[in-house]
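re: ur question from yesterday

yeah so i grabbed the chain u mentioned. its 334 aa long if i counted rite. heres the sequnce exactly as i have it in my notes:
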Amino acid sequence: MSPILLFDCEMGNNAAMRWAWSFKPRVSDDQNGEDNHYSAGDACPDFLCVGAQKGGTSWLYRQLERHPDFWMPPVKELHYLNSLNKTRQFHPPRCRDRRDASFLDSMKNLSGLSYIDLENYGRLFEHKGSLVSGDISPAYSTVSDEIIHRVVNSFPNLKVIFLARDPVERAWSQLSMGVRLGMITPFDATDADEVIRNLLNPGVLLRSHPSKIVARWRRYVRPDLFRIFFFDDLEKNPTELQRSILQFLGADPDKSNGRLKADDNQDANRKKLRLTDKVRCRIAQFFEQELKDCAAELGGPAKQWPARYGFSLAIFFLQLVDDFDILFWCDWIA
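ran it thru and got these structure tokens back, copy pasting raw so excuse formatting
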């Protein structure tokens, strides 16, 4: 039988998890392959966007919600896979028609269970009909390997998107949002030590290492079903970014989103904490290794991130070569 995660309710947001065997099997234990077929009438998400928070996920939701090839859930972030607790909503959910109302009722009932029920989670998406639909929840960047493995096995054709952003810029944007929404206690943004203490908050730190997030999801998702896109491209060429994402998800990029333009990014003008050069330099030092790891793991625009802060990739790659040579020599000696 297929396992379900049970939560220790007393643990709150850091709930301990365990798998229970409580419903009819739908998939084998193999990694997502041809033998793992979801059988609930194709009622399942077509894709997940697993981050990054402050990486353009709100922009993506708005773009897909307006596109004629998509039916998106009435709530941008479902958070079902990362928390069974009620998620704080800062915007009321959309409720335009019976599909929206039915989805919200089903989600409420599903969230009331003490375990993760992937079968009924998949059925949430039956409202899409023949359209494309998915779950955009940046917090899925923090879920465990066990959950990733089970999700991928349950939905073998699931596509996964990660919107990557320079760790320095992303973290500062998250801190600014946290203070603005009252989720982080206001602090002296000119005090580098105070800033670092806030970066060490688990809610910030766990989301601040895209190289590790991508590496974990890549271990379970087939290469053709996993794609990284970059916040850099949202800033420089949103139209081309939108087109690339639509093509990856199997939608028609030539169809119109109505009055919504690709460069409509409402979050771009939100008030942020003032970032001084001194603090920016300190944050960059904090993330130096991660910036270099991103260049190696993510490629694309991430290759330029270390140079923004004066870090040399040449030394980093020379060190990688030295490490490889040492490993090769040790293997030869053995």
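noticed a couple things. Confidence is low (pLDDT under 50) at residues 1-40, 326-334. also The first strand starts at residue 2 and ends at 7.
anyway ttyl
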